[in-house]
Amino acid sequence: MSDLTFNKVAGALLATGLAVFGLREASSIVFAHHEPEKAGYAIEVAEETGGAAEAEAPIDWGTVLPAADIAAGEASFAKCRSCHTIEQGGANGTGPNLYGVVGARPAVHPGFSYSPAMIAHGEEAPVWTFEELGHFLEAPQRYINGTKMTFVGLKRREELINMIAYLHSQGGQIPFPAPNPVAPAAEEGAAAEGEAAAEGEAAAPAEGEAPAEAAAETPAA
């Protein structure tokens, strides 16, 4: 190879190397690399509004009961008939007869043997008010610890309201209360609250002087 040819090849290689180096430097200037302040990468998580954790507003019985669906409450009570009767003069079963339970004193129905817990509750709360029945039917064991009623309770507020309206229609001894003037406007729709959810759901009732679930209940007292 002549000196001239060698010089041309060497010059070409040098020029290529300089071009590559220049491009790398230029790219590092244009596309600057910044070290992150924190290692890893951030994942945005929506903050919980607390809506699910917020307790439901108390039921304004004076507003929701007049609009309740008594027929729906009667349909729900069909699940309780294996333990309770509700006809006037009906016999006691696993649970007491429930005619006139709304407004009655807890644990006093003739001929029925109540649990000590239910008897004690009757001394503390001498009337089955709408509010008392609401708390009890929502979660019997939680509200009266030691009751023989093993039903888990009526979790859907709409069914709870309809059930109590039906019980009231069967010999209820107290009138509907007056609506609470300061209750949230949302309470007006409480009786229909579960309509959307009810399209794919069903619930069951609940002891003592209240309904019991058909299959797995042993309401007594």
Describe this structure in words.
The protein has 221 residues and is mainly α. The protein has a domain of 94 residues: Cytochrome Bc1 Complex, Chain D, domain 2 (Orthogonal Bundle), CATH 1.10.760.10. It is built from seven helices and no strands. α3 crosses α7 and α5 crosses α7. It is rod-shaped and about 125 Å long.
Helix and strand topology:
Blueprint: H1 3-30, H2 61-64, H3 70-77, H4 116-124, H5 130-138, H6 140-143, H7 157-169
Helix pairs in contact: 3-7, 5-7
Write a brief structural summary.
By secondary structure, this protein is mostly helical. It contains seven helices and no strands.
Number of strands: 0
User: What's the level 1 CATH class of the domain at 112-181 and 198-221?
Assistant: Mainly Alpha
Averaging pLDDT over every residue, what do you get? 78
Question: Structural class, from secondary structure content?
Answer: mainly alpha
Q: Please write the string of helix (H) and strand (E) elements.
A: HHHHHHH
Major pleated sheet: none
Oligomer, anyone? single chain
Helix content: 25-40%
Q: Treating each run of at least 4 consecutive H or I residues as one helix, how many helices?
A: 7
CATH topology of the domain at 112-181 and 198-221: Cytochrome Bc1 Complex, Chain D, domain 2
Low-confidence stretches: 40-49, 202-206, 210-220
| CATH evolutionary superfamily of the domain at 112-181 and 198-221 | Cytochrome c-like domain
- How many whole angstroms does the radius of gyration measure? 36 Å
- Beta fraction: under 5%
Question: What is the 3D shape?
Answer: rod-shaped
Kindly report how far apart the N and C termini lie: 113 Å
What is the annotated CATH architecture of the domain at 112-181 and 198-221? Orthogonal Bundle
